Automatic annotation (TrEMBL):
GO terms for molecular function: NAD binding; UDP-glucose 6-dehydrogenase activity. This is UDP-glucose 6-dehydrogenase. The keyword Oxidoreductase applies. Belongs to the UDP-glucose/GDP-mannose dehydrogenase family. It comes from Streptomyces filamentosus. InterPro entries: 6-PGluconate_DH-like_C_sf, NAD(P)-bd_dom_sf, UDP-Glc/GDP-Man, UDP-Glc/GDP-Man_DH_C, UDP-Glc/GDP-Man_DH_C_sf, UDP-Glc/GDP-Man_DH_dimer, UDP-Glc/GDP-Man_DH_N, UDPglc_DH_bac. The gene is udg. Substrate binds at residues 151-154, 204, 249-253, 257, 320. It comes from the Bacteria. Residues 313-414 form the UDP-glucose/GDP-mannose dehydrogenase C-terminal domain. NAD(+) binds at residues 34, 39, 88, 122, 154, 263, 327. It catalyses: UDP-alpha-D-glucose + 2 NAD(+) + H2O = UDP-alpha-D-glucuronate + 2 NADH + 3 H(+). SMART domains: UDPG_MGDP_dh_C.
Length: 430
């Protein structure tokens, strides 16, 4: 029989909101606490500050069981289980900055009914042991510590939480807390994998690093195909049909970005280096990506010569379709390189917020792709928004001053684009 638990989620960011909403959906009584008054106020007023399909509806239909607060006292009074969902951005050294994590753990002192602390934030290997010691120090020896990494991808976070491939639970002897946390997921049909805390902390990083490795591999194969005349999309489609490999994360493009891959692969490399060995593969995976993100620049120079004074349109600013997130997006690298070369940059994106784009001065959100492309010297497909495949490119060829397109996502059809008069370049396709 189902027994709801009282849960406090610390951090109303991306992961915290998804976690809080989904736990409420599962029937638990949830308080989400954040230290940002504006954010809490917006959430209390029913506004959802991030774009994530299904999240707004889920928050709305669970408002009986889901509250937002600024008040630490209220958060602690509620906390039978405390989820740590704060961000751990890279610090100057490349190591994750854990200051927000420590501040949450410290603030738990005085939570009298606390039975379990769940680490959802992505943290370096060994953080759990330090958190355990800190909990003991602040008088919470009775609360178990559990590592429960998340594997949600943006744009499908709600689906990933409610239907994950696995639920990883890490514990170093706090079995009761581990069982409690596993039990919170009752209603979700997924294997629960239990292991020690260090291993659980490693799974998240190892999993993201392998996904990023596959993409860097795809990009390396694409660069090879560019020289041999083979078509990387055909090659990797067939490679991925090997059941030992599978078809996912083999799309060549202008590299991986986002809030997780760059941070997590770098963190894992850093952890390896700090522990005294040089992780050659991880370093290569990162190098390939850094080079890949600049691929369009050379293509544009080949087509246009000097880029100074050229009007270049970046089609897609978000790091992938279906999100407004521009963290570590290839578009940001391209925009700043193009500006440094003296080009004028225009940007189009259906979701990215103008405020995020504005640092690049001339960057504007255009009403339509066609409007953005009018009179331009070149366009780069940076994000594979489906809208871009639906554009009337034959008409666009007439609108542009020079019909030059670098398709960084292999979204368009090379033969057709050339038929319509484009100088068309893509990644690893003849
Ligand atoms: C990722 C992981 O998928 C998720 O499990 C983890 O919890 C967080 O990191 P996310 O960052 O939302 O999720 O994006 P994802 O869809 O995985 O894409 C990551 C990047 O790889 C994007 O920049 C995307 O454009 C790129 N990518 C992905 C490719 O270049 N080729 C591919 O075949 C797949």
């Amino acid at each position: 029989t189902f027994r709801p638990n009282r849960v406090t989620v610390f951090g109303a960011g991306y992961i915290g909101l998804v976690t809080g909403a989904c736990l409420a959906e599962l029937g638990h009584d949830v308080v989400v606490r954040d230290i940002d008054p504006a954010k809490v106020e917006a959430l209390q007023a029913g506004e959802v500050p991030i774009y994530e399909p299904g999240l707004g509806d889920m928050i709305a239909r669970n408002k009986e069981r889901l509250r937002f607060t600024l008040d630490l006292g209220e958060a602690l009074a509620q906390a039978e289980v405390a989820y740590v969902c704060v961000d751990t951005p890279p610090s100057a050294s490349g190591d994750a900055d854990l200051s927000r994590v420590w501040s949450v753990v410290r603030s738990l002192a005085g939570a009298e009914g606390l039975r379990a602390v769940v680490m959802k934030s992505t943290v370096p290997i060994g953080t759990g042991a330090r958190a355990r010691a800190l909990l003991d120090e602040v008088g919470l020896a009775g609360a178990g510590y559990v590592s429960n990494p998340e594997f949600t991808a943006e744009g499908r976070a709600v689906r990933d939480f409610m239907g994950p491939d696995r639920i990883v639970i890490g514990t170093d002897g706090d079995e009761t807390a581990a069982a409690l946390v596993a039990g919170l997921h009752a209603g979700i049909d997924a294997p629960v994998v239990t292991m020690d805390v260090r291993s659980a902390e490693t799974v998240k990083l190892a999993s993201n690093a392998l996904l990023a490795t596959r993409i860097s591999y795809a990009n390396e194969m694409a660069n090879l195909c560019d020289r041999t005349g083979a078509d990387v999309t055909k090659v990797l489609a067939a490679v991925g049909m090997d059941h030992r490999l599978g078809p996912y994360f083999l799309n060549a493009g202008i590299g991986w970005g986002g809030s997780c891959f760059p941070k997590d692969v770098e963190a894992l490399r850093q952890i390896a280096s700090n522990s005294g060995f040089h992780p050659m593969l991880l370093s290569a995976v990162i190098d390939v990506n850094n080079i890949q993100r600049r691929r369009p620049l050379q293509g544009l120079k080949d087509a246009l010569g000097d880029l100074a004074g050229r009007e270049v349109v970046l089609l897609g600013m978000a790091f992938k379709p279906g999100t407004d997130d521009m963290r570590e997006a290839p578009s940001t690298v391209l925009a700043s390189r193009l500006l440094a070369e003296g080009a004028r940059v225009r940007c189009w994106d259906p979701l990215a917020r103008p405020g995020d784009v504005e640092p690049w001065a001339s960057a504007v959100r255009y009403a339509s792709v066609e409007e953005a492309l009018e009179g331009a010297d070149a366009a780069v497909v940076v994000t594979e928004w489906p809208q871009l495949a639906g554009v009337d490119w034959a008409a666009v060829a007439e609108l542009m001053r020079r019909p030059v397109v670098f398709d960084g996502r292999n979204l368009l059809e090379p033969a057709r684009m050339r038929e319509w008069g484009f100088t068309y370049m893509s990644i690893g396709r003849p």
